[in-house]
Design goal:
Length: 272
């Protein structure tokens, strides 16, 4: 396992689309159940709520792995670090463990070289322990590598599910020793209704969500599923103990359908 892979927890809780008391309860429940990695972003508008949940949890800061993502409005060299400092204030912490560039946003007027250098500078200032990228394709990942070196990039957080397996990009990242973090691993819940996933779940006395998450974990990816329900947060964690057979993995591999759920105009690259 690479140094990068070792530095990113395999299992965390996501907070996308969760706001106010809903996200406070979700993060508090997750931490109470034993989660220690929390993923948020500036654009989610919930960093202060996440910070409140963490503060009220009583979990020591050095036991936690907190990730946030820089929004496109803050990519310029003079804006990135100040925006991260604002995020830290909301999160009630002196540093985050990982900061990602949220989207490559090829049309927003800030070059990859500029925002990656600014992100590396934020790390040098001690605002973040690790840096990385999110939603980067092979070409934009190459640009990020050219800017800061592949060893500086802890992960590329990408949409990845049994319906969108991203083989080319995942293989490239493996070659570069850049860890993969999978988001939308359940494809907005669509894979939970898949008959193949359902059959595998029955064989293992597991849930479809556990099967999809275990599949990603067995491929070496990190996962960050979210839920507003405590029982689902608890159930998702059990995916860590589920071992799928080679036959199971082959069946899931056959579900690929380029089923992308997220690709905002102006932010997304040309996908591989």
């Amino acid at each position: 396992m690479s140094i990068n892979a070792q530095s990113i927890p395999p299992f965390g809780v996501g907070t996308f689309r969760l706001q106010g008391q809903v996200v406070i309860d979700s993060v508090r429940n997750a931490l109470d159940l034993g989660y220690r990695a929390v993923d948020t972003a500036q654009i989610y508008g919930n960093e202060a709520d996440v910070g409140q949940a963490i503060a009220e949890s009583g979990v020591a800061r050095d036991e936690l792995f907190i990730t946030t993502k820089i929004w496109v409005d803050n990519y310029a060299a003079d804006k990135l670090a100040p925006s991260l400092q604002a995020s830290l204030a909301k999160l009630r912490t002196d540093y985050v463990d990982l900061t990602l560039i949220h989207w490559p946003a090829p049309g927003n007027g800030v070059a990859v070289e500029e925002f990656m250098a600014a992100l590396a500078d934020a790390k040098a200032q001690g605002l973040t322990r690790r840096i990385g990228i999110s939603n980067f394709n092979i070409a934009t990942t190459r640009q990020a590598i050219a800017a800061v070196g592949k060893d500086a990039i802890a992960t590329n957080q990408i949409e990845l599910s049994p319906y969108l397996q991203n083989h080319q990009l995942a293989a490239f990242l493996r070659e570069q020793d850049i860890h993969v973090t999978s988001y939308m691993t359940l494809a907005y819940g669509k894979v939970l209704k898949d008959p193949v996933i359902g059959d595998i779940a029955k064989r293992h006395d597991a849930t479809p969500a556990q099967v999809a998450l275990a599949w990603a974990l067995q491929l070496g990816y990190s996962v960050i599923p979210s839920s507003t329900r405590r029982e689902n947060l608890a159930g998702n964690l059990l995916a860590r103990q589920l071992r799928l057979t080679e036959g199971d993995m082959a069946q899931i591999a056959a579900l690929e359908r380029n089923g992308r759920e997220v690709s905002p105009d102006g932010l997304a690259p040309q996908w591989d």
